[in-house]
Amino acid sequence: MNTSMEVLGMLGQAAVQLVAQPFYYIAVLFIILQYTRQIRLERQLFAVKLHYWPALVGKALLAGLATGITVSAAGALIGVALTAESVLWLWAVAAILMLIRIRYLCFAYSAGIIVLLQWLSGWTNFSERTDWLASIAGSLADIDAAGLLMLVALLHLAEALLVRRQGDRLSTPLFLEGKRGKLVGGYMLQGFWPVPLLMLVPSSGSGASTISLPWTPVFGADWSQGWTIIALPMIIGFTEMTRSMLPKEKARHAARGLLLYSIFLAAAALLAWWQPVLLPAAALVSVLLHEALVWRSRYLESTRPPLFVHDARGLRVLGIVPGTPAEAMGLAAGEVLQKVNGVRVRTKEELYEALVQNSAFCKLEVLNIDGELKFAQRARYEGEHHQLGVILAPDEEANFYAASGPASLLELLRSSRASSRRRQASAAAGKEQAGL
Question: Which residues contact 242 (CB under 8 A, 6 or more apart)?
Fold first, then answer.
């Protein structure tokens, strides 16, 4: 009972620390910025709103909270001897890296660089110095390097599960510039989750508890001297682009890569804890293996033909607008509209003409993603919106496409437009694709 009350008291203190720290709020603001930019992109390309950023942020907060509870519990069993200074190091290095590339916000890069800096500082004699360099070296030396890498592995394991479960629902269709300058359809899968961690750590300082824990953590410092719970606000997330896969398939592919990454990094962290001489190698695993995931995805996309393009069979569906007849009829991205009300359609003009032929009923012949024919039909009611609600893959008349995203944080903050103009033409002409 005493241990339970002590843990609850420590959890309350750590929760107060979390509320007082700015990093969690910075993570939430970053997520809001990313999702509002995504929705602005949707409106510019298709003149419709496919997502609502408050809903996306709310779901991210709930999923991040659940992830934080799970990872905190796992960390208590494993025993990660981190300190509040570790948080400062992680966020400081991440902030510097984000000035170079936004995707470097991932703590796999920060943790790897911190461990390498710790290793390099060990080759320099700072014991006789009293300046700021000696203070930095001392702060680095106090970081539990193996524990930090293990924490990153746990976070990526949680990220893999989130991507597998939610990745396709966080996707947005895009018009993209393909090879040879031709426009093709594609998807951006983007998800971010703020993760509030309350980590059990060994401590002998003031405020630490000396009550014996009912379990022995796997590794870490000497737990017999005392322990405490500290707040570690983190953020996890992913961004993937695909021209050749359905969102669900791309999410599965990304989740598998993240799962393998977390397993390899956890093994490297355990080996480095057992043999500290392996810490530089484990740090390189953290950075280089994560970079390999990025290049693996890009290589796979470059070797596969684009999926979201029209062909001789009919019109390829890129996306479905929520709450429209197309959603009610069960149409899905990747399918091909072959006939509408008995009329073959190969252009958006033919599709519109076929739709208006029957104001009371709509019957579709559709080829699913496997090329099999299916039928969909639905009555059209008075006062209902006349549009079907499909977003078609781009054709030669499309005037807008998604520009390359901002590479750095400064570019993201300066960015006012999320799409680029293909040629000098009216915006309305470019947005007709969403109006069918």
Answer: 186, 187, 189, 250, 301
Q: Give domain status of residue 232, yes or no.
A: yes
- Which residues does 240 contact at the CB level (< 8 Å), separation at least 6? 167, 188, 189, 190, 250, 251, 254, 297
Looking at the structure, do residues 253 and 289 belong to the same domain, yes or no?
yes
Clarify whether residues 180 and 99 are in a common domain. yes
Q: Which residues contact 68 (CB under 8 A, 6 or more apart)?
A: 195, 196, 197, 198, 234
C-beta neighbour count of 127 within 10 angstroms: 8
| Closest by Cα among 303, 301, 335, 302 to 318 | 335
| DSSP run (H or E) holding 149 | helix 145-166
**What string of DSSP letters covers 344-392?**
E--SHHHHHHHHHT-SSEEEEEEE-TTS-EEEEEEE--TTS-SS--EEE
**CB of 282 within 8 A of CB of 155?**
no
pTM equals 0.87
Residues 218 and 195 in one domain: yes
Distance CA 436, CA 397 (A): 15
Is 130 found in the same domain as 62? yes
Residues 142 and 181 in one domain: yes
Residue 284 has pLDDT above 90, yes or no: yes
CATH code at position 382 = 2.30.42.10
**Inter-axis angle of helices 132-141 and 84-98, to 10 degrees?**
110
Claim to verify: residue 247 and residue 385 sit in the same structural domain: no
Segment 61-67 mean pLDDT: 95
Residue 205's domain comprises 2-303
Number of domains in the chain: 2
Report the SS3 class of residue 421: strand
| Cβ-proximal residues to 190 (8 Å cutoff; 6+ apart), any chain | 34, 38, 170, 171, 172, 237, 238, 239, 240
Q: Which is more confident, 217 or 90? A: 90
